[in-house]
Amino acid sequence: MNDISDYIQGELIKIPFNLYNLITKYIESNNNTKVAFVGGYLRDLLISKFHKESFSEPVDIDIVIEGSSISLAKFIKKNIVNVDLCLIKEFNLYNTVEININNYKIDVASARKEIYSAPGLNPTVTNSTIEEDLKRRDFTINSIAFEVSARKIYDLYGGISDIKSKKLNLLHSNSISDDPSRLIRCAKYASRFNFNISNNALKQSQETVRQWPWKSSKTHQKMIFPPALGIRIRMELAEIYKHDNLNNVISIINKWEIISILNENIEVDKRFLRGLNWIKKLNGNYLLYLIKNAEDLETTCERFLVNNGEVKILEDYLDIKKILKTNKEKFMHFSPSSWTEFIEKRNLNDETVKLLICDGVPYWHNLFKWLFIYKSIKSKKDGETLKKEGWEQGKEMGIEIKRLRYLEIDKLNRS
Q1: Spatial contact of 357 and 369, defined as CB atoms under 8 Å apart
Q2: pLDDT computed for residue 197 by the predictor
Q3: What's the chain's average pLDDT?
Q4: Where are the beta strands (DSSP E) in 13-144?
Q5: Tens-digit pLDDT profile for residues 356-373
Q6: Both 196 and 297 in a single domain?
Q7: Is there a single domain that holds both residue 372 and residue 232?
Q8: For residues 386 and 401, is the Cβ–Cβ distance under 8 A?
Q9: CATH number of domain containing 3
Q10: Is 360 left (phi over 0), alpha (psi -120 to 50) or beta?
């Protein structure tokens, strides 16, 4: 382990703002309190070492302390030099602190033990040791720690070996049932690092999804759809959408036969993936795309804390999709202005139009043209101009401005 310890320490010293030495000084002035770097940053360092992968910068830096996280954070803020910004934000629920140094984020947590009273709920937390803290983590590759003062590596679950063999192993038999959002994270790692899920981890994942009571039950509604779980799944998807290949992750979840954690009615085929790719290009709402065809849309929206505005988008999407499919001939000879009127008189949200485009509904290309061309075209004359021409302000003027705008839009057919 000495060569790995030396390698890790050498890389940690390179972290900006002299952070490693600041932590060393804190330890020395606080009775050699144990402080360790943990999680994703160490994982990425080891992937770089063993597989020659390069990461331009740390995805995240996590620090665990056997003591007060806020005390360490305040020490760093007080003693850091040559920075424009150093903010700390406390999260009392888990005794964690987020440090923002020139928009460089570091999470500091007091070592803790977690107990889940029911699947998907937030855990009950008690202070603990670094060793105990590692037990609460999701995958072996994320359960590695480097204690600063002793230059000691904690690898209690074979995470280094799994990194070498590019294997995704869960930490314990309740990893997924404690927090089913870990299914999404597992697929993210499989996609990002080209790692393979172990047979045991895949079996646990599939069994958890099969046993999970996704069906609605008024009696135990809060237990079946704990808000914390919906939030965590949305956060995982947001992270993937921002930094990873969402298409690949969804394909992996489907291959593992656990797609029902999102929506059991998803058919992951070329058409679906093409639409998901277009959602990214159009900067659309990927979650609504994933759940748009759910059999029980109301229940699915409750599960993922979909707000009223998003529900309206989905309802309009389903309504317009039905209209376009059942009245194809009616729209065959629609002019650009007719499409504009059809969309705008219904006050459709742009996100509704994006869903229809990405779903490939009939005449989707006309919707695309409205979104990027027709929508932005204005009348050659505004209200002030018409007033000078003798028009009185009111309904008739509005009708004339719309008529003139439609004329400009229809010119596109003749150009």
Answers
A1: no
A2: 97
A3: 91
A4: 35-38, 61-65, 86-91, 96-101, 104-110, 112-115, 124-127
A5: 999 999 999 999 999 999
A6: yes
A7: no
A8: yes
A9: 3.30.460.10
A10: left
The predicted-structure confidence for 225-250, as pLDDT tens digits, reads as follows 677 888 999 999 999 999 999 999 99
Tokens for 197? 């899920």
- Residue 141 domain-assigned (yes or no): yes
Q: Is residue 149 part of a domain?
A: yes
Task: Give pLDDT tens digits for 280-289.
Answer: 999 999 999 9
When divided into structural domains, the chain yields a total of: 3
pLDDT reading at 217 higher than 60: no
Instruction: Tell me if 272 is assigned to some domain.
Output: yes
In terms of average pLDDT, the best of 44-58, 96-110, 199-213 is 96-110
Boundaries of domain holding 353:
329-414
DSSP 8-state symbol, 139: B
The CATH code of the domain that includes 271 is 1.10.3090.10
- Biggest CA pair distance of the chain: 88
Distance (Å, rounded) from C-alpha 297 to C-alpha 316? 13
Q: Tell me if 117 sits within 8 A of 98, measured CB to CB.
A: no
Under 8 Å between Cβ of 272 and 223: no
d(CA 364, CA 357) in angstroms, rounded, equals 5
Q: Tell me if residue 170 falls in helix, strand or coil.
A: strand
**Whether residues 379 and 409 fall in one domain:** yes
pLDDT tens by residue, 311-358:
999 999 999 999 999 999 999 999 999 999 999 999 999 999 999 999
